[in-house]
């Protein structure tokens, strides 16, 4: 019931004024493919890169977030860029968000082993609210149907609204170090829900800053440190993770989310195993640190990553000159 009331407040808290909403997806495996939150990363793996993530957050808590994310991207060496597609679905209580986006990046070669990329993303954003399942303190809900919320701002049926937006980013990638800055949804667009009384929700911008550094211990073993900062300029959250990779066949790691006593959220236990040459399976468990840890069973995240064709997607081969003397 608490989750239902939270969503009703989200929709009606400021009556006819605009409500600002939208939280970016939360993933423990954010470091697997930075394309999820930065369009400038498209094509930087020099291969066809596909990623599927499924996340059940705060399991055991009624109405807790459930997310699915599918993305893929690949380079276009002939024009020095990359393209990609991302689809994300989130179910949170009575609310559902479905976002689909297309990205393009332009790569600028800085040195033989480093590249700077600029990216742009266009998105279609759909938000649904199931008013037929909502309840209010003063509402009447007869067994035969025809609910009456006694509140004009809470719809009695399922309502939906779609809008568009754009995101942008810049990314630098070298052999051992990489970093990026991205902004999600920088256009002033809104969702408008039409029912007894119109409710308008403004799409809010979010900013992402990330970095990664890999220590190459020997030919078959390396250690990677990754960080991510997310902000809407008034609220901030950080992720820091480290993992050990052995012969690129399996890895184990740990992550921490939060930077002070009011933002501590979870410790994540990470693992992955290579099933075949291009296919990797990953699994994470988030152990909660906030007060919600007393009312849920933790968070589980599962993913499959597929990378193919690095040697086939490097662009045109140079012209071969045959020496007739040999």
Name its key features:
326 residues, mainly beta, 3-stranded mixed beta sheet, 1 helix, 3% helix, globular, disordered N terminus
Biggest pleated-sheet summary: 14 strands, antiparallel, barrel
The count of DSSP E runs of length 2 or more, i.e. the number of strands, is: 17
The CATH architecture name reads Beta Barrel
The best one-word shape is: globular
Number of domains as seen in the coordinates = 1
DSSP summary: helix tally: 1
Structure, described:
The protein is mainly β. The protein has one domain: Porin (Beta Barrel). The chain has 1 helix and 17 strands. The strands form 2 sheets. It has a 14-stranded antiparallel beta barrel. A 3-stranded mixed beta sheet has the order 1-10-9, covered by helices on one side. The radius of gyration is 23 Å and the shape is globular.
Summarize the structure.
The chain is built from one helix and 17 strands. The protein is mainly beta and 326 residues long.
Summarize the helices and strands and which ones pair or pack.
Blueprint: H1 2-12, E1 19-21, E2 48-56, E3 66-76, E4 81-92, E5 95-111, E6 114-130, E7 158-173, E8 177-184, E9 190-193, E10 199-203, E11 206-218, E12 221-231, E13 236-246, E14 250-257, E15 266-274, E16 279-288, E17 299-308
Parallel strand pairs: 1-10
Antiparallel strand pairs: 2-3, 2-17, 3-4, 4-5, 5-6, 6-7, 7-8, 8-11, 9-10, 11-12, 12-13, 13-14, 14-15, 15-16, 16-17
